[in-house]
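Hypothesis: this fold can be encoded by more than one sequence.
Test: take the structure tokens below, design a sequence, compare later.
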């Protein structure tokens, strides 16, 4: 049973990595993409009993540089992880990405994007959308209007 869950988790990790690769390729090919967009933050999307939660790793990002916009079933995140301006140092290796970033999340399901809230703590941006009771499929009576006089 443990092997089964390990396999599922590994498949989910691979799918997430492939999604990131395809998103990067899409950004490169998009007419709207800018050569200034350099940073792709890592993120998790999950559901609790009450909320849809998106957690994004943004170490070194000033929360004031972030812009979060919900439009329909889409969430847009923009920000900037600034370059180190220390001219007295010379890097031997740079692996951490920096620069402007932009990310679009599709919000699928019954969630109230108008009541979303975001918190930024210890380099992690957490965005929560409360669940909305899905009333589709709930039977309800339809009144018959008579046109007889």
């Amino acid at each position: 049973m443990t092997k089964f869950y390990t396999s599922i988790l590994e498949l989910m990790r691979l799918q997430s990595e492939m999604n990131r690769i395809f998103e990067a390729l899409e950004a490169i090919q998009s007419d709207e993409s800018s050569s200034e967009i350099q940073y792709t933050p890592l993120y998790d999307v999950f559901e609790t009993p009450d909320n849809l939660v998106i957690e994004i790793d943004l170490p070194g990002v000033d929360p004031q540089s972030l812009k979060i916009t919900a439009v329909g079933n889409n969430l847009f995140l923009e920000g900037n992880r600034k370059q180190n301006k220390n001219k007295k140092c010379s890097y031997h290796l740079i692996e951490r990405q920096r620069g402007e970033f932009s990310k679009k999340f599709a919000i699928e399901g019954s969630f109230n994007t108008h009541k979303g809230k975001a918190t930024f703590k210890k380099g992690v941006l957490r965005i929560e959308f409360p669940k909305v009771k899905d009333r589709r499929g709930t039977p309800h009576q339809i009144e018959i209007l008579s046109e007889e006089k």
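The helical segments are 2-29. The first helix runs from residue 2 to 29.
Hypothesis status: open.
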